[in-house]
Amino acid sequence: MAKLLVAEDESALRMLLSDTLEDEGYETDLACDGEEALNMILSGAYDLVILDNMMPKLTGYEVIEKVRNLPGKERVKILMLTAKSQQTERDKVLLAGADDFMSKPFSPFALVEKIGEMLNG
């Protein structure tokens, strides 16, 4: 099964996502801030990275920018989580290099469906 990185600074949400994804058979690693997420992406092979936008140390946008400029990592699939749901935010996220985004709050089951689409599509 696919290996995912969940980068979310809110511990309760991070654990909910981890539990939900592991129940679906995904292997998950967890990061609590953008810097930790970037270091984990540098040292690991992930099929998909779930990034919160507003994290300490590095934002989701900053992580995307750095990942997209790393040889061998530029095509890591990235799903951005954001509290903003406007079309302009969606455009900004996709322009930054994310493959897709979901706005908070969201259903964990909708997230699982979105991940399946991203990995299989």
Automatic annotation (TrEMBL):
<keyword id="KW-0804">Transcription</keyword>
<dbReference type="InterPro" id="IPR050595">
    <property type="entry name" value="Bact_response_regulator"/>
</dbReference>
<feature type="domain" description="Response regulatory">
    <location>
        <begin position="3"/>
        <end position="119"/>
    </location>
</feature>
<feature type="modified residue" description="4-aspartylphosphate">
    <location>
        <position position="52"/>
    </location>
</feature>
<keyword id="KW-0597">Phosphoprotein</keyword>
<dbReference type="Pfam" id="PF00072">
    <property type="entry name" value="Response_reg"/>
</dbReference>
<keyword id="KW-0238">DNA-binding</keyword>
<dbReference type="InterPro" id="IPR011006">
    <property type="entry name" value="CheY-like_superfamily"/>
</dbReference>
<protein>
    <submittedName>
        <fullName>Response regulator receiver domain-containing protein</fullName>
    </submittedName>
</protein>
<keyword id="KW-0805">Transcription regulation</keyword>
<dbReference type="InterPro" id="IPR001789">
    <property type="entry name" value="Sig_transdc_resp-reg_receiver"/>
</dbReference>
<keyword id="KW-0902">Two-component regulatory system</keyword>
<dbReference type="GO" id="GO:0000160">
    <property type="term" value="P:phosphorelay signal transduction system"/>
</dbReference>
<dbReference type="GO" id="GO:0003677">
    <property type="term" value="F:DNA binding"/>
</dbReference>
